[in-house]
Amino acid sequence: MLNIITSWFSTHGFDPALAELMARGATAASILVVCIIANFVAKHLIVRGLGYLISQTENQRDDIFMERKVLSRLAHFAPAVVVYLLAPVALEGYESLITLMSNIIFIYMIFLGMLFIDSLLNALVDIYRTFDASRNIPIKSFVQIAKLVVFLIGTIFIISIILGKTPLYLISGLGALTAVLMLVFKDTLLGFVAGIQLTTNKMLARGDWLEMPKHNADGVVLDVTLTTVKVQNWDKTITTVPTYALISESFKNWRGMSESAGRRIKRAIYIDINSIKLCDDAMLKRFQKITLIGDYLDTKINEITAYNKNNQIGDDALINGRRLTNVGTFRAYVEAYLKEHPLINKNMTFLVRQLAPTEHGLPIEIYVFCRDKVWRNYEAIQADIFDHLLAVAPEFDLRVFQIAAGSDFRAAIQAA
């Protein structure tokens, strides 16, 4: 083709050397024009046309290919292929330049290929995350391994082109560098193995609530990657934990709570032991007016009266025979109150128990599960329950324990 153009210039009176130079210049200009046309067609007509069609579809997943610029990066191949195919025409007769130009363009296309695969894999990860399965089976670490392999292979091909050696020559030389490579990619290999274990055993997934005090991590898992797990703490800070640390160390995953039918409430009210006493008739009559424990008290009073009568125990002293206590009655009230609460799950563990006395008094612990697991709502429900119980404790002649403050001592001194 170059000879034809050169002959055409020569027939029009140009010097043969000048005619050849002009022919090469015209060929190069033609190649440049074709590149511009190919670039315009690929990017402005094909890519934008496909982008418009994608934007008109109801499926939102195909929009991800545009957001990740998959088609845009693929369009860069058009001018590169034109130059790779037509450059030898303009450089005909200069084999060394043809080889150099072909190698440069080929390296450029390999680089474009790596970027295209990177964008494609990112788009596939984003699409996968739109499915429910992505929450339990994260694949980002495996995709990162795939990227690493692609970039490694691409780099080997680029180096082989620069050195003029076959890729197999370089690959065979990597065997001698195995120890060095394992040292360099130690975290990557550990993270890959840890990622397989985490995924296979379903130990951790994106969206889980992770608690790992050693690494100051307490929040929602944002991402599980090849080398790190990114956690957004409740104070909105970001903590990154090495992936292999989740295998070698212990951590708490709150997913079980999220997937269960309730969130645990475990808190105690400390009763001043000095306020605990046996119930006399006046106290029982007052307690019987409390709706929630009216039936309970009637049953217990009849049971105790029958027992004391059968055992010929008189009422001259409360210490004789069986008697109700104000703290036991209060415990029965707490249980009845929680059973009536609409947001307490009665089908899960339900305990109102008395723990061993401490220097702070007698703990009455509530161990139940709240149906609403949303943190804000859960805290409000828990607070409402204990607001009520702390307020009604004096109705049972009980005092909630509190360490004396300076104001308490001043009041005692003034009263004296």
Structure description:
With 416 residues, this protein is of the alpha+beta class. α2 runs antiparallel to α5, α5 runs antiparallel to α6 and α6 runs antiparallel to α8.
Would you tell me the structural class of the helices and strands?
Answer: alpha+beta
* Order of H and E elements: HHHHHHHHHHHEEEEHEHEHHHEEHH
Helicity range: 55-70%
- The coarse overall form would be elongated
What is the strand arrangement across the widest sheet? 4-3-2-1-5
Contiguous runs where pLDDT drops below 50 for at least 5 residues: none
Q: Look at the structure and give the mean pLDDT.
A: 84
| β-strand amount | 5-15%
Annotation, overall tally of beta strands: 8
Q: Give the N-terminus to C-terminus distance in angstroms.
A: 119 Å
Biggest sheet overview: 5 strands, antiparallel
Helix count, DSSP H or I runs of 4 or more residues: 18
The radius of gyration over CA amounts to 40 Å
